[in-house]
Every structure is written in structure tokens, then in C-alpha cells.
Amino acid sequence: MDRSDSTIGSSSDEYHSIYPDEQLKAVPFVRILWIDNSGIHICRVIPKERLGFVKEHGIGLSPACLAALSSVSNAPAEDSGLTYTGMIRIIPDLSTRCRIPWEKKQEMCLADMVTKPGKPWEYCPREVFRKVSKILKDEFDLVVNAGFEIEFYLLKSVMRNGKEDWVPIDKTSYCSTSAFDVASSILEDINTHLQTMNISVEQLHAETGKGQFEIVLGYAEACTAIASLIYAREVIRSVARQHGLLATFVPKFAEDEDGSGSHVHISLSRNGDNVFIASDESKYEMSKIGEAFMAGVLNHLPAILAFTATHPLSYERMLPKTRNAAYLCWGKENTEAPLRTASPPGIADDLVSHFEIKAFDACANPYLALASITMAGIDGLRKDLSLPEPVEGDSDVSGEKLRSVPDSISESLIALAEDTLFTEVMSENLLTAIKAIRKMEVKNYCEPERDYSQPEMDVYKDPLQDIIFKF
């Protein structure tokens, strides 16, 4: 389906000075990529000779297709306030441009959303994150840094009773050498492609699910880290396809398998120095700046989930005893807690260098998700908040009377409605659209319709079969 209301302009020669004829011939296409409010990767492709014109004037699309669609519907979410009437422009950010390793004759770059050149659209996720980053810098002279873990399943196609099904490529256990052997050539190709894109990889291993793997990306300033996350997912999907497989990042691939997240590790820096590491007295081996920031995140976590855990499957992943954040608490090196402070190898005296958030997955728009986390941290800094005592061991059997995190999108939306913090950087219109999309995800996934193409059979559409191909 073509979701564009109009395409602006015609070809231009102005970029021939930047891209000589031989380079234009070598790389004929540029993919302009963005992430929508349901977490889907989307792109428009232009001939490279048009890049100059598009950089200046943009590509026109309707408001609804940029910010009002759920993961399984081409219709705008009801009550989103957005329609297919009107035009918003996507502008390529050439600072993110890179060659596509698996398509030798193509490049890609990320995009901003504007109402007209130079005027950001209030729904643009990248602009929201820029606003939050500016507040953090202006008020506290701090920069947020991030590193992502990417969990995914590798699936192969099999025929069962005349129907195609997708099953894991392996059935071995966590960190199994056999599992790594099965996927070794795929992981080698992924790592090679990421290296050519200057995306740092710290670790690769088999995860707990059958056919599930994890790639840990390097740490960087947040905007760079988000771009690396987006491009890494593109690499993983494409390499899997080249090997005849399907890579899916869906939060819960199967009821009897562990979920897949995009756990994010966060720290703060000032003038290039990590200010999370204790430089003053703290009983938690972290600085007061780090504690206040993290306390703000813990305080606002129920509402943050509306941005970081955005699909019904997200909540099927966050269960007790699955190391996926079921209770509102924090702990030092406690993988059962939704917020975990970390003292990785190389950090002296067991001091905390950063913290990890578990409730983050591939259905989230990473810019909006990290914006909500950062804004919550800013609130903690403004109020000089303190953390409660950390939880040790399994958080649900620790003897503490702990409040559960929201266990559904509906609960996270209630928390968001009660939490007015995010209106400082997110317009009411954007929040209205986000809430409408979340409600539509619930309707699409939790209320599947009868498949009337086969009226004689008791067959229902399985929304998960569509979702695993999109996430």
C-alpha cells in the first residue's frame, strides 16, 4: 500500500559535486529510514541523484502513516487525531548516512519529521529526544549515554499438515557451544557487517530460549547508540534472510519460551567523564547524581512502560523469575529487578558505572522510550530524589512488600494519564496518538477475529503470525 499523499519535486543535479558520477553509478539508491510509534522500521527509497533535493525539501507523507498506525493495521488508530489528509515531510539526516553492507549498491540514513524545512513536527520522535537532551545539558551540564542488548530468535520454515510454520533453528540451552556452532556463520556475517558500519559489538551468545541469541552493542552517546540499535536490527534481519531464516525480535515468540528484550544500559557523563561512578559519599557505591537520576526513573517507571513496553506481548515477557522486571524495585547486580546497577569488569572497588532497564523491547520507538527515561531522570535530579533500599535475590520472595509493575498496556496507560511529567517535552497531540495506538494494539492482538475465508472450520486469525515478521 502506498501511504504517501504526495511526492515532492523532481531530480536535481546539485549533489553531483558531493557525489561524483562514478559514485552515483556505484550507489544508485538511498533508503530513508524511520521508526513509527508502534516500533516498526519503515523506509522510503530514492535515487541518489535526488538526495540534494530531498535533503532541502523532503519527501511528503500523510500524518497518519507517520504517527498513527499500529503494528498490524494500515488504518489510523481511532481517536489518534491523525488522518491521511495533509502532508508531513521526512528529511534525511546525512550525518547518519552509511553504506548498506548486504546491498553493495545502496546507502541508508535516518530521517527527521518536519511540517516544512526547518520546522520540526511535534510528533517527531527524534525531535522529542533532542528536547530532553537539551534540558539535561542546559540544567545539569550532563549527557546521557546508552548501550543496548539485542535479543532475537532465529527461525526456520517447516511444513506441517500442508501449512508453513516457523520453528527455532536450535533446541540447546543458554550459552551452549552447540547453539553457537549452529548459528556461527550467521553471527560471523552479522558481526562483519556491523564492523563495516563502525558499530561496536561487545558480546554474542546463545540466550535461554530455543534458537534465541543475544548481541551486546557497545556503549555510546545516546543518539549514536539508538542509531546503532536501529541499524543492527536491520543487519540481523537481512543476514538471517540471506541464510534462508527469519530473525524476529518480538517480545514473546512462544508461550513456553523466554521473551526477547532490548535491555538498555544507561549512564551520565560530563565533559566526557562518567559521573555515575561515586565521587562523593554514597552507601550504594554510586554518585549522588547517579542516585537521583535513577530514583527519578524508578519513581516514574509505571508511566515509562507506556513508551518502553508498548505491545501486549511486552507484558507476557515481564513475569516473575524470568529476569525481566516484574516488581517496582532496584538492586545491585540483581537481574530480577527492573533497574539493576552494574559494576562491570574494569571498574575499580565495585563502584557502580551505570544502571540497566529491563522493561524495554523492540516494539518501542527507541527515541521516545529513551526520552521518557531521561525525562524521569531529570525529574529525579531536579528534586534530588533518593533511592529506597535495594532488593537482593528474587524480588518476589525477598520478604519485601513490593508493588508490581503494570502488567498490561491498559495499566501503563493509566499510570501515564496520572503522570504529567512527560507533557514538558511531548505535546498533548503526540500523547493522544500514542495512547490511541496502544489501545489499538490491544484490540488487534487480544481480540482476534474469526477467519471467515474458511467458514466451515473453527479457524481464527493468529495475530502473532503477522507480528513475528514485523518485529
Automatic annotation (TrEMBL):
Database matches in Pfam families: Gln-synt_C
Keyword Ligase included in the entry's annotation: yes
InterPro entries to which the protein is assigned, alphabetical: Gln_synt_N_sf, Gln_synth/guanido_kin_cat_dom, Gln_synth_cat_dom
Gene Ontology molecular-function annotations: glutamine synthetase activity
Residue ranges of every copy of the GS catalytic domain listed in the record: 125-471
SMART domains: Gln-synt_C (SM01230)
Keywords for this protein: Ligase
Key word Ligase present: yes
GO terms classed as biological process: glutamine biosynthetic process
Record-linked PROSITE patterns: GS_CATALYTIC
Similarity annotation: Belongs to the glutamine synthetase family.
PANTHER family listed in its UniProt record: GAMMA-GLUTAMYLPUTRESCINE SYNTHETASE (PTHR43785), TYPE-1 GLUTAMINE SYNTHETASE 1-LIKE ISOFORM X1 (PTHR43785:SF8)
Name of the protein: GS catalytic domain-containing protein
Species, as recorded: Nicotiana attenuata (Coyote tobacco)
